[in-house]
Amino acid sequence: MTKKEITQLSYEIIGYAIKVHKKLGPGLLEKIYEECLKYELEKNGHNVKQQINVEIDYYDLELSNPLRLDLLVNDCIIVELKTVEKFHPIDEAKLLTYMKLLSVPQGLLINFNTTNITKSYKPLINEYFSKLADD
């Protein structure tokens, strides 16, 4: 994928999140928004993996509690959903770590506990994004 395609997909994801938010409003559990956003993405032809394990490779140590990310869209954008008053630095750090561990170029933090998703979501990119072709 190119930078342009990744950016376009992220706009589409935010659009579907806005659609879900307009229908349901704030105040529900994160899991409900996750299911509805997954539905919208799949209905519109996107490949979505939900609650997938993020393995941590630490020599020969097997960790019993693997990390789980919310949604992976088209194997190129990780979507982490929140229903919080505001994002915390750990939310960004966690998403950046998922992106690094899975070699994914972009991540989106989306907070459904808001009156306006477009003012509260946070896109993140990493070195994998910078290595992509522009278009």
From TrEMBL:
InterPro entries this protein is in?
Answer: GxxExxY
Domain of life, per lineage: Bacteria
Pfam families named among the record's database cross-references: PDDEXK_3
Q: What is this protein called?
A: GxxExxY protein
Report the source organism: Flavobacterium glycines
Q: What is the lineage of its organism?
A: Bacteria, Pseudomonadati, Bacteroidota, Flavobacteriia, Flavobacteriales
